[in-house]
Specification:
This protein is an alpha/beta fold and 342 residues long. It is 29% helix and 24% strand. Strands 1, 10, 11, 12, 13, 14, 15 and 16 form an 8-stranded mixed beta sheet that branches. β4, α4 (87-93) and β5 (96-99) form a beta-alpha-beta unit. α1 (10-24) packs parallel to α2, α4 packs across α5 (102-114) and α6 (136-147) packs parallel to α7. 42% of the residues are buried. The mean pLDDT is 95. The chain binds pyridoxal-5'-phosphate.
Protein backbone atom coordinates (compact mmCIF):
# COMPACT_ATOMS: atom_id res chain seq x y z
CA UNK A 1 0.00 0.00 0.00
CA UNK A 2 1.13 3.59 -0.57
CA UNK A 3 3.04 5.31 2.20
CA UNK A 4 2.99 7.63 3.95
CA UNK A 5 -0.72 7.37 4.66
CA UNK A 6 -3.07 8.16 7.48
CA UNK A 7 -5.68 5.57 8.40
CA UNK A 8 -8.88 6.99 9.82
CA UNK A 9 -11.25 4.89 11.89
CA UNK A 10 -14.69 6.48 11.60
CA UNK A 11 -16.24 4.10 14.14
CA UNK A 12 -13.89 5.42 16.81
CA UNK A 13 -14.68 9.04 15.91
CA UNK A 14 -18.41 8.26 16.01
CA UNK A 15 -17.97 6.52 19.37
CA UNK A 16 -15.95 9.39 20.85
CA UNK A 17 -18.56 11.92 19.76
CA UNK A 18 -21.48 9.86 21.05
CA UNK A 19 -19.77 9.17 24.36
CA UNK A 20 -19.18 12.89 24.97
CA UNK A 21 -22.66 13.87 23.73
CA UNK A 22 -24.25 11.37 26.12
CA UNK A 23 -22.16 12.43 29.10
CA UNK A 24 -22.82 16.14 28.49
CA UNK A 25 -26.54 15.91 27.64
CA UNK A 26 -27.71 15.39 31.26
CA UNK A 27 -25.85 18.58 32.12
CA UNK A 28 -27.70 20.50 29.41
CA UNK A 29 -24.61 20.87 27.24
CA UNK A 30 -24.66 20.24 23.48
CA UNK A 31 -21.63 19.37 21.35
CA UNK A 32 -20.45 21.26 18.27
CA UNK A 33 -18.06 19.12 16.22
CA UNK A 34 -14.90 21.02 15.25
CA UNK A 35 -13.49 19.93 11.89
CA UNK A 36 -10.57 22.31 11.35
CA UNK A 37 -7.83 19.82 12.26
CA UNK A 38 -9.07 17.46 9.55
CA UNK A 39 -9.57 20.21 6.93
CA UNK A 40 -13.32 19.63 6.94
CA UNK A 41 -12.95 16.01 5.78
CA UNK A 42 -16.59 15.17 4.91
CA UNK A 43 -16.61 11.55 6.16
CA UNK A 44 -15.16 12.62 9.51
CA UNK A 45 -17.64 15.49 9.73
CA UNK A 46 -20.48 13.03 9.07
CA UNK A 47 -19.16 10.69 11.76
CA UNK A 48 -19.35 13.60 14.23
CA UNK A 49 -22.94 14.30 13.21
CA UNK A 50 -23.82 10.58 13.43
CA UNK A 51 -22.37 10.63 16.94
CA UNK A 52 -24.80 13.37 17.96
CA UNK A 53 -22.99 16.68 17.35
CA UNK A 54 -25.74 19.27 16.78
CA UNK A 55 -23.72 21.29 14.28
CA UNK A 56 -20.18 21.72 12.92
CA UNK A 57 -17.57 24.43 13.20
CA UNK A 58 -14.44 25.21 11.23
CA UNK A 59 -11.97 28.06 10.97
CA UNK A 60 -11.63 28.24 7.18
CA UNK A 61 -14.11 28.86 4.39
CA UNK A 62 -12.45 26.32 2.07
CA UNK A 63 -13.12 23.59 4.65
CA UNK A 64 -16.75 24.61 5.07
CA UNK A 65 -17.22 24.64 1.29
CA UNK A 66 -15.71 21.16 1.08
CA UNK A 67 -18.32 19.88 3.56
CA UNK A 68 -21.15 21.69 1.77
CA UNK A 69 -20.05 20.21 -1.58
CA UNK A 70 -20.22 16.75 0.02
CA UNK A 71 -23.87 17.41 0.86
CA UNK A 72 -23.54 18.25 4.56
CA UNK A 73 -26.46 20.55 5.28
CA UNK A 74 -26.28 21.03 9.06
CA UNK A 75 -25.74 24.49 10.58
CA UNK A 76 -22.11 25.60 10.14
CA UNK A 77 -20.24 27.91 12.47
CA UNK A 78 -17.22 29.97 11.46
CA UNK A 79 -14.94 29.74 14.47
CA UNK A 80 -12.36 32.26 13.43
CA UNK A 81 -13.58 35.84 13.38
CA UNK A 82 -14.17 36.57 9.69
CA UNK A 83 -11.75 38.57 7.58
CA UNK A 84 -13.39 41.78 6.44
CA UNK A 85 -12.42 40.80 2.89
CA UNK A 86 -14.46 37.60 3.16
CA UNK A 87 -17.73 38.67 4.75
CA UNK A 88 -19.91 37.83 1.76
CA UNK A 89 -18.35 34.34 1.49
CA UNK A 90 -18.99 33.76 5.21
CA UNK A 91 -22.61 34.75 4.79
CA UNK A 92 -22.95 32.30 1.91
CA UNK A 93 -21.72 29.19 3.67
CA UNK A 94 -22.10 29.69 7.43
CA UNK A 95 -25.24 30.32 9.46
CA UNK A 96 -23.25 31.76 12.36
CA UNK A 97 -19.82 33.28 12.83
CA UNK A 98 -17.78 34.11 15.93
CA UNK A 99 -16.99 37.80 16.11
CA UNK A 100 -15.17 40.47 18.08
CA UNK A 101 -15.17 43.56 15.80
CA UNK A 102 -18.27 45.69 15.25
CA UNK A 103 -16.97 46.93 11.89
CA UNK A 104 -16.89 43.35 10.58
CA UNK A 105 -20.30 42.55 12.08
CA UNK A 106 -21.78 45.59 10.31
CA UNK A 107 -20.45 44.30 6.97
CA UNK A 108 -21.77 40.80 7.67
CA UNK A 109 -25.14 42.39 8.37
CA UNK A 110 -25.05 44.39 5.14
CA UNK A 111 -24.12 41.30 3.12
CA UNK A 112 -26.94 39.31 4.73
CA UNK A 113 -29.45 42.08 4.09
CA UNK A 114 -28.56 42.17 0.40
CA UNK A 115 -29.72 38.54 0.28
CA UNK A 116 -32.73 39.11 2.55
CA UNK A 117 -31.08 36.80 5.04
CA UNK A 118 -30.08 37.03 8.66
CA UNK A 119 -26.61 36.01 9.86
CA UNK A 120 -26.03 34.71 13.39
CA UNK A 121 -23.41 36.41 15.56
CA UNK A 122 -21.74 34.75 18.52
CA UNK A 123 -19.53 37.19 20.41
CA UNK A 124 -16.25 35.92 21.78
CA UNK A 125 -15.23 37.03 25.26
CA UNK A 126 -11.65 37.18 26.49
CA UNK A 127 -11.28 34.98 29.58
CA UNK A 128 -7.56 34.31 29.84
CA UNK A 129 -6.52 32.79 26.51
CA UNK A 130 -5.64 36.24 25.10
CA UNK A 131 -6.38 35.25 21.50
CA UNK A 132 -9.69 36.38 19.99
CA UNK A 133 -12.26 37.90 22.34
CA UNK A 134 -13.43 41.27 23.68
CA UNK A 135 -12.86 42.12 27.32
CA UNK A 136 -15.78 41.24 29.62
CA UNK A 137 -16.17 44.96 30.41
CA UNK A 138 -16.84 45.74 26.74
CA UNK A 139 -19.11 42.79 25.99
CA UNK A 140 -22.51 44.11 27.01
CA UNK A 141 -22.00 47.30 25.02
CA UNK A 142 -21.00 45.35 21.89
CA UNK A 143 -23.92 42.95 22.37
CA UNK A 144 -26.39 45.82 22.58
CA UNK A 145 -25.10 47.26 19.30
CA UNK A 146 -25.41 43.84 17.60
CA UNK A 147 -28.91 43.35 19.02
CA UNK A 148 -30.23 46.43 17.19
CA UNK A 149 -28.42 45.84 13.88
CA UNK A 150 -30.72 44.59 11.10
CA UNK A 151 -29.32 41.66 9.10
CA UNK A 152 -27.73 39.95 12.10
CA UNK A 153 -29.09 38.18 15.14
CA UNK A 154 -27.20 37.79 18.39
CA UNK A 155 -27.13 34.01 18.77
CA UNK A 156 -24.78 33.69 21.70
CA UNK A 157 -21.51 34.31 23.45
CA UNK A 158 -18.47 32.11 23.77
CA UNK A 159 -15.04 31.86 25.33
CA UNK A 160 -11.73 30.21 24.44
CA UNK A 161 -9.37 28.40 26.75
CA UNK A 162 -6.03 26.76 26.06
CA UNK A 163 -5.97 27.71 22.37
CA UNK A 164 -3.06 30.13 22.49
CA UNK A 165 -2.30 30.01 26.20
CA UNK A 166 -2.30 26.92 28.34
CA UNK A 167 -4.80 28.11 30.88
CA UNK A 168 -7.55 25.66 31.75
CA UNK A 169 -10.93 27.19 32.46
CA UNK A 170 -11.68 27.68 36.14
CA UNK A 171 -15.06 27.34 37.79
CA UNK A 172 -14.83 31.08 38.42
CA UNK A 173 -14.36 31.88 34.72
CA UNK A 174 -17.32 29.67 33.82
CA UNK A 175 -19.49 31.39 36.43
CA UNK A 176 -18.43 34.75 35.01
CA UNK A 177 -19.42 33.65 31.48
CA UNK A 178 -22.83 32.59 32.81
CA UNK A 179 -23.39 35.89 34.52
CA UNK A 180 -22.31 37.83 31.41
CA UNK A 181 -24.96 35.89 29.47
CA UNK A 182 -27.64 36.84 31.98
CA UNK A 183 -26.51 40.44 32.00
CA UNK A 184 -26.77 40.65 28.19
CA UNK A 185 -30.22 39.08 28.25
CA UNK A 186 -31.56 41.53 30.81
CA UNK A 187 -29.87 44.65 29.41
CA UNK A 188 -30.40 43.96 25.70
CA UNK A 189 -33.78 42.25 25.97
CA UNK A 190 -32.66 39.19 23.97
CA UNK A 191 -32.47 35.46 24.64
CA UNK A 192 -29.08 33.92 23.93
CA UNK A 193 -29.49 30.56 22.27
CA UNK A 194 -25.91 29.50 22.89
CA UNK A 195 -23.49 30.09 25.70
CA UNK A 196 -20.45 28.21 24.48
CA UNK A 197 -17.98 27.51 27.26
CA UNK A 198 -14.98 26.58 25.13
CA UNK A 199 -13.31 23.53 23.60
CA UNK A 200 -11.86 20.22 24.75
CA UNK A 201 -9.96 21.99 27.55
CA UNK A 202 -13.34 22.56 29.21
CA UNK A 203 -14.21 18.87 29.51
CA UNK A 204 -12.72 18.26 32.96
CA UNK A 205 -14.89 21.17 34.19
CA UNK A 206 -17.98 20.15 32.18
CA UNK A 207 -17.84 16.50 33.27
CA UNK A 208 -17.06 17.42 36.86
CA UNK A 209 -19.31 18.29 39.73
CA UNK A 210 -19.58 22.01 39.10
CA UNK A 211 -23.00 23.29 38.01
CA UNK A 212 -22.96 24.31 34.33
CA UNK A 213 -24.97 27.48 34.96
CA UNK A 214 -25.97 29.07 31.65
CA UNK A 215 -23.28 27.23 29.68
CA UNK A 216 -25.07 24.99 27.21
CA UNK A 217 -22.51 24.15 24.52
CA UNK A 218 -18.91 23.05 23.97
CA UNK A 219 -17.02 23.07 20.68
CA UNK A 220 -15.00 19.87 20.58
CA UNK A 221 -12.20 18.95 18.20
CA UNK A 222 -9.25 17.32 19.95
CA UNK A 223 -11.29 15.23 22.41
CA UNK A 224 -13.41 13.74 19.62
CA UNK A 225 -10.54 13.14 17.23
CA UNK A 226 -7.75 12.10 19.61
CA UNK A 227 -9.48 11.28 22.89
CA UNK A 228 -7.32 13.63 24.96
CA UNK A 229 -7.77 16.95 26.75
CA UNK A 230 -5.38 19.62 25.49
CA UNK A 231 -4.05 21.22 28.68
CA UNK A 232 -2.11 18.24 30.02
CA UNK A 233 -2.55 15.92 27.04
CA UNK A 234 -4.18 13.30 29.27
CA UNK A 235 -6.40 10.63 27.69
CA UNK A 236 -10.08 10.99 28.58
CA UNK A 237 -11.64 7.84 30.10
CA UNK A 238 -13.96 6.08 27.70
CA UNK A 239 -12.53 7.59 24.51
CA UNK A 240 -10.38 6.05 21.80
CA UNK A 241 -7.00 7.73 21.42
CA UNK A 242 -6.13 5.87 18.22
CA UNK A 243 -8.76 6.87 15.68
CA UNK A 244 -5.88 8.02 13.48
CA UNK A 245 -2.71 6.11 12.64
CA UNK A 246 0.02 7.61 10.51
CA UNK A 247 2.05 5.01 8.63
CA UNK A 248 5.50 5.65 7.22
CA UNK A 249 7.87 3.43 5.25
CA UNK A 250 11.43 2.55 6.25
CA UNK A 251 13.96 3.39 3.53
CA UNK A 252 17.15 2.51 5.42
CA UNK A 253 18.07 0.83 8.68
CA UNK A 254 21.78 0.75 9.43
CA UNK A 255 24.24 0.78 12.25
CA UNK A 256 25.72 4.26 12.45
CA UNK A 257 28.90 5.54 13.93
CA UNK A 258 30.76 8.77 13.68
CA UNK A 259 33.43 7.74 11.16
CA UNK A 260 35.69 10.60 12.24
CA UNK A 261 36.08 9.10 15.70
CA UNK A 262 37.55 5.95 17.12
CA UNK A 263 34.88 4.06 19.01
CA UNK A 264 35.20 1.68 21.89
CA UNK A 265 34.51 -1.79 20.36
CA UNK A 266 32.61 -2.91 23.48
CA UNK A 267 29.93 -0.18 23.19
CA UNK A 268 26.93 -1.34 21.15
CA UNK A 269 26.37 0.91 18.19
CA UNK A 270 22.89 2.29 17.61
CA UNK A 271 20.77 1.40 14.63
CA UNK A 272 19.29 4.37 12.88
CA UNK A 273 16.21 3.83 10.77
CA UNK A 274 15.15 6.39 8.24
CA UNK A 275 11.47 6.92 7.45
CA UNK A 276 10.26 8.49 4.22
CA UNK A 277 8.31 11.28 5.87
CA UNK A 278 9.53 14.72 6.91
CA UNK A 279 8.84 18.24 8.02
CA UNK A 280 6.98 18.98 4.80
CA UNK A 281 4.42 16.36 5.81
CA UNK A 282 3.82 16.78 9.52
CA UNK A 283 5.07 18.00 12.91
CA UNK A 284 7.43 15.18 13.87
CA UNK A 285 7.87 16.49 17.41
CA UNK A 286 4.22 15.57 18.02
CA UNK A 287 4.63 11.94 16.98
CA UNK A 288 4.72 8.99 19.33
CA UNK A 289 7.00 6.28 17.91
CA UNK A 290 6.72 2.59 18.81
CA UNK A 291 8.40 1.56 22.07
CA UNK A 292 12.18 1.04 21.69
CA UNK A 293 12.47 3.77 19.04
CA UNK A 294 13.72 7.22 19.93
CA UNK A 295 13.15 10.21 17.69
CA UNK A 296 16.49 11.70 16.66
CA UNK A 297 15.47 14.37 14.20
CA UNK A 298 13.78 15.20 10.93
CA UNK A 299 14.59 17.13 7.79
CA UNK A 300 12.24 18.20 5.04
CA UNK A 301 11.82 14.64 3.72
CA UNK A 302 13.51 12.26 6.20
CA UNK A 303 12.82 11.24 9.77
CA UNK A 304 15.48 9.44 11.79
CA UNK A 305 14.71 7.17 14.73
CA UNK A 306 17.20 5.20 16.76
CA UNK A 307 17.09 1.90 18.56
CA UNK A 308 19.59 -0.45 20.08
CA UNK A 309 19.84 -3.65 18.12
CA UNK A 310 16.54 -3.41 16.27
CA UNK A 311 17.32 -3.40 12.58
CA UNK A 312 14.27 -3.04 10.33
CA UNK A 313 13.76 -4.20 6.78
CA UNK A 314 13.81 -1.52 4.11
CA UNK A 315 10.25 -1.49 2.81
CA UNK A 316 8.68 -2.31 6.16
CA UNK A 317 6.25 0.13 7.73
CA UNK A 318 6.08 1.87 11.08
CA UNK A 319 2.85 2.95 12.85
CA UNK A 320 3.00 6.42 14.35
CA UNK A 321 0.57 8.02 16.80
CA UNK A 322 -0.19 11.68 16.15
CA UNK A 323 -0.94 14.61 18.45
CA UNK A 324 -3.20 17.49 17.40
CA UNK A 325 -0.46 19.46 15.71
CA UNK A 326 0.86 16.48 13.72
CA UNK A 327 -2.68 15.37 12.83
CA UNK A 328 -3.58 18.81 11.53
CA UNK A 329 -0.52 19.03 9.33
CA UNK A 330 -0.71 15.42 8.15
CA UNK A 331 -4.33 15.87 7.10
CA UNK A 332 -3.28 18.88 5.05
CA UNK A 333 -0.22 17.23 3.47
CA UNK A 334 -0.36 16.58 -0.25
CA UNK A 335 1.83 13.49 -0.09
CA UNK A 336 0.03 11.67 2.72
CA UNK A 337 -2.72 9.37 1.51
CA UNK A 338 -5.94 9.09 3.50
CA UNK A 339 -7.55 5.71 4.05
CA UNK A 340 -10.97 5.53 5.63
CA UNK A 341 -11.80 2.55 7.84
CA UNK A 342 -15.55 2.64 8.46
C1 LIG B 1 -10.07 25.01 17.50
C2 LIG B 1 -11.15 25.65 18.25
C3 LIG B 1 -11.99 24.87 19.06
C4 LIG B 1 -11.78 23.39 19.29
O1 LIG B 1 -10.76 23.20 20.21
P1 LIG B 1 -10.34 21.71 20.69
O2 LIG B 1 -9.34 21.98 21.74
O3 LIG B 1 -9.79 21.02 19.50
O4 LIG B 1 -11.57 21.07 21.22
C5 LIG B 1 -13.04 25.52 19.70
N1 LIG B 1 -13.24 26.84 19.56
C6 LIG B 1 -12.45 27.62 18.80
C7 LIG B 1 -12.74 29.08 18.67
C8 LIG B 1 -11.38 27.05 18.12
O5 LIG B 1 -10.60 27.84 17.36
Amino acid sequence: MNAPRIEINLDKIRHNTRYLVERLAPRGITVTGVTKAVCGHPAIAKAMLDGGAIDLADARIANVKRMRRAGIGCPMLMLRPPMLSQVSLIDECCEISFNTEFGVIAELAAAAQRKNAVHGITLMVEMGDMRDGVLPDDLVDLASRVAITPGVILTGIGANFACLGHIAPSAGAMAQLSSLAMQIESECGVMLETVSGGGSANLPWALGLEKPGRINNLRLGEAILLGVEPVFGNPIDGLYTDAFTLIAEVIESNIKRDTAQQVEPSIPLPVRSILAIGLQDTDLTGIEFPPDFTFIGATSDHTVVESIGCRLQAGSEMDLQVNYSSLMRAMNARDIGQIIRA
